[in-house]
Amino acid sequence: MRWSWLTIALLRPAAVLAAAWLALAAAPTIADSPGVATGGGSSLPLATPGVDPSGGAGGGSGPSGGGDSGGGSGVPIPPPPPPGSYEAMQDGGGGGGNFGNPGGTGGPNIEIPGLLPDQPQGPSVSPDEIIVVFPGNLNRSVGSAFAADHNTTIVDYFRLPGLNAHVFLMSLRDTAQFGQRFNKMAQDPRPLWVQPNPGFATTPSRKLSSTDPKPNIGLQYALTQVHIEPVLDVTRGGGVPVAMVDSGVAVKHEALADASISVLDVIAKPNEVLTEATPEGHGTAIASIIVGHGQLQGIAPDVELLAIRAFKETDPKSGAARSSAFYLSKGISAAIDRRVRIINLSLTGPQDRLVSHTVEQALMARIVVIAAAGNAGPGAPPAYPAAQAGVIAVTATDNGDHLYRHANRGSYVTLAAPGVDILVAQPKGYGYLSGTSMATAYVSGLSALMISRVDDLTPVRLRKLLETSATDLGPPQRDPDFGAGRIDASAAFNHLAAN
Question: What secondary structure, in 3-state letters, does the chain show?
Answer without folding.
Answer: CCCHHHHCCCCCCCCCCCCCCCCCCCCCCCCCCCCCCCCCCCCCCCCCCCCCCCCECCECCCCCCCCCCCCCCCCCCCCCCCCCCHHHHHCCCCCCECCECCCCCCCCCCCCCCCCCCCCCCCECCCCEEEEEEECCCCCCHHHHHHHHCCEEEEEEEEEHHHCEEEEEEEECCCCCHHHHHHHHHHCCCCCEEEECEEEEECCEEEEEECCCCCCHHHCHHHHHCCCHHHHCCCCCCCCEEEEEECCCCCCCCCCCCCEEEEEECCCEEEEEECCCCCCHHHHHHHHHHHCCCCCCCCCCCCEEEEEECCEEEECCCCEEEEEHHHHHHHHHHHHHCCCCEEEECCEECCCHHHHHHHHHHHHCCCEEEEECCCCCCCCCCCECCCCCCCEEEEEECCCCCECCCCCCCCCCCEEEECCCEEEECCCCEEEEECHHHHHHHHHHHHHHHHHHCCCCCHHHHHHHHHHHCECCCCCCCECCCECCECCHHHHHHHHHHC
